[in-house]
Design brief:
It contains 9 helices and 5 strands. It has about 220 residues and is an alpha/beta fold. It has a single domain, classed as P-loop containing nucleotide triphosphate hydrolases (Rossmann fold), CATH 3.40.50. It starts with a helix and ends in a 6-residue tail after the last helix. Strands 2-3-1-4-5 form a 5-stranded parallel sheet, with helices on both faces.
Length: about 220
């Protein structure tokens, strides 16, 4: 059970969500398939800006809890999970199309069920990136992991380090695990982030948006 203070924090976080955004032709949610280091957050944020819709990010929840007295790289996991659950329902209740900044590889089934239950369409975008590029990107995170390896992760804030402490070791472990997981067959679009070029990424996002217009999801 959560305390009254915890429940007040949930309400306070929900109150930060803009209720005015570009109206879409249909209610939809965009989710991603993509392992550590593929650039999901960059894709999510740039797509959210283009569509003018909300990006639901677990990182934002972590920063919010850090700012309100809960320390740790993963602050108050139970409350963090509840905020994310309540956030999702709030967005559906407000008829707000949105983007989930996270990897749905293991959770696309429940995410689809939740979308369908709320009258929304789940569109899954597969993120591809050449492994050599991923490993190069993860070197910076590996350096962070080395820096904080002797520190209790409950005593440092996510806001302090600016990214997750998932590096090359976590990437390789998840890569093996994901070999046993069936991907959904109805991929809406695939984005290649190997080039590290924002111009190239934006070109792909523009193409995705044109497809969405053609499908009647957003205004042309």
């Amino acid at each position: 059970m959560f305390s009254q203070a915890d429940l007040a924090l949930i309400e306070k976080f929900i109150a930060t969500i803009p209720v005015k955004q570009t109206e879409t032709m249909e209610l939809f949610v965009i989710g991603f398939l993509g392992i550590i280091g593929m650039g999901k957050s960059t894709v999510a944020n740039r797509l959210g800006e283009r569509l003018d819709i909300y990006v639901a990010s677990t990182d934002n929840v972590k920063r919010f809890l850090n700012d309100h007295g809960h320390k740790g790289v993963i602050p108050y996991p139970e409350l963090s999970h509840q905020i994310n659950m309540d956030l999702s329902q709030y967005l559906y209740d407000q008829n707000l199309s949105h983007i989930i900044d996270g990897d749905l590889t293991r959770f696309h089934g429940p995410a689809r069920e939740n979308a369908t239950k709320n009258g929304a369409k789940l569109m899954i975008v597969d993120i591809y990136c050449d492994e050599s590029v991923i490993l190069e990107r993860l070197k910076e995170r590996d350096a962070l992991i080395e820096k904080f390896k002797e520190v209790d992760r409950n005593e440092i804030d996510f806001s302090e380090i600016g990214s997750s402490l998932s590096g090359t070791e976590d990437y390789l472990a998840r890569k093996q695990m994901y070999k046993t997981i069936d991907k959904p067959t109805d991929i809406y679009y695939t984005i290649d982030t190997s080039s590290n070029s924002l111009e190239e990424l934006d070109s792909q996002l523009d193409e995705l948006i044109e497809i969405m217009k053609g499908d009647g999801m957003i205004a042309g």
